[in-house]
Design goal:
The chain is an alpha/beta fold. It has 13 helices and twelve strands. α7 links the parallel β5 and β6. α2 packs parallel to α9, α3 crosses α8 and α11 crosses α13. Bound molecules: pyridoxal-5'-phosphate.
Length: 373
């Protein structure tokens, strides 16, 4: 039959049939084809290749969630007694993994504020197997000065990992700074429609072999249907992010002068503490922002409940705008002390700005703020 599919189909198969034992042995020994879908699947390989190209890395690996990507990549790079230096302002689940799980494996994680570059360098110099960064940060939108920190990590022989989820592959290009392992929760901008949970890492050949092995063992591989949807998401990523960057800037500017808003965290505002870094480092300021309502917990809840168009939901990065109160969900697992250190107050609202008509979003925020006493 002539002609081939324009889009890689969903290869719903768990296993693969061989004409001979020699063929099977060749695939197992030389990684030259498919044998079992926990190892590799054509739909997953297709989206991995597309993302690797976009991020400028030799390889990408698909996972069942962002957390599967993070835990697998980290576990593939530690041994008993390893030391991790991480920025304190990281996703709540990542913090819990480092703080609650890794000590059981006798792995120490040290957390340092992401803006305190002197302290970060000092901690790295005391021994560092993995240097773990996230930028922009969740939920306070701090922007880390990545390039010099990557150099500091490499000088100490650390594997440098960066969670680039909030930036997406459109707004930030970690390959430019030689980051070893780039992480994305594919659930967010790459999927883009709030319909998949997915994760990715992008890396070079040596890391690929290491992380691929651990993915095979731990089993958190991406499924073929998710891979298909992630690939569809990649096709509109640039368009969506362009609109989300624009919308978020307008929403941030509206909130910044609203009398019932105490503060706004958006790197595209000139008074943001990391505005200069963001301008230099990012191709766009992104679709994420957070802000503090000038009210207590109950009144902030009332604001949330008064939103009509913007959905009250966790997660981020899709075409539909979502609002959440980090203290009630994404950061609920943190102790009050760690929550305070992360900047998560009772009146903090995180907003993931979608691609809707921005006038309708601002109208919705305006009417919900009216409800606040
Ligand atoms: C920055 C960041 N990294 C990682 C994750 C985890 O991704 P997933 O929910 O796909 O496991 C999230 C989830 O919100 C996130 O915001």
């Amino acid at each position: 039959m002539k002609g081939k599919p324009v889009i890689t189909p969903v290869h719903l198969t768990a296993t693969y049939d061989f004409d001979s034992s020699d063929d099977l042995i060749d695939v197992v020994q030389n990684h030259s084809g498919y044998i079992y879908s926990r190892w590799d699947n054509p739909s997953v390989v297709a989206v991995e290749a597309a993302l690797a190209k976009l991020e400028g890395y030799e390889h990408a690996l698909g996972f069942s969630s962002g957390m599967a990507a993070i835990t697998t990549a980290v576990l593939a790079n530690i041994a008993t007694g390893s030391r991790i230096v991480a920025t304190r302002q990281i996703y709540g689940g990542t913090f819990e993994f480092f703080n609650d799980v890794l000590p059981k494996l006798h792995v120490e994680a040290v957390f340092v504020n992401c803006w305190d570059t002197d302290k970060l360098r000092q901690e790295i110099s005391q021994g560092c197997d993995i240097f773990y960064l996230e930028s922009p940060t969740n939920p306070m939108l701090r922007v880390v000065d990545i390039a010099p920190l990557v150099q500091a990590g490499h000088a100490q022989g650390a594997v440098v990992m960066l969670d680039s989820t909030f930036a997406s592959p459109v707004n930030q290009h970690p390959a430019n700074w030689d980051v070893d392992v780039v992480i994305h929760s594919g659930t967010k901008y790459i999927g883009g429609h709030h319909d998949i949970t997915a994760g990715f890492v992008c890396c070079n050949q040596a890391q690929y072999e290491r992380i691929w092995d651990y993915r095979k063992i731990l089993g958190g591989v991406m499924d073929p249907m998710t891979a298909f949807l992630a690939q569809r998401g990649l096709q509109t990523l640039d368009l969506r992010l362009g609109r989300q960057n624009e919308n978020a800037q307008k929403v941030a500017e509206f909130l910044a002068v609203h009398p019932k808003v105490k503060s706004v965290n958006y790197p595209g505002l000139t008074d943001h503490p990391d505005y200069a870094i963001a301008r230099r480092q990012m191709a766009g300021f992104g679709g994420m922002l957070s802000f503090e309502v000038d009210a207590d917990f109950e009144q902030t809840k009332l604001f949330m409940d008064s939103l009509k168009k913007i959905k009250l939901a966790t997660s981020l990065g899709g075409v539909t705008s979502l609002a959440n109160q980090p203290i009630t969900n994404t950061h609920v697992g943190l102790s009050p002390e760690n929550r305070a250190k992360a900047g998560v107050s009772e009146s903090l609202v995180r907003l993931s700005v979608g691609i809707e008509d921005v006038r309708l979003l601002i109208e919705d925020l305006e009417q919900a703020l009216t409800a606040v006493a």
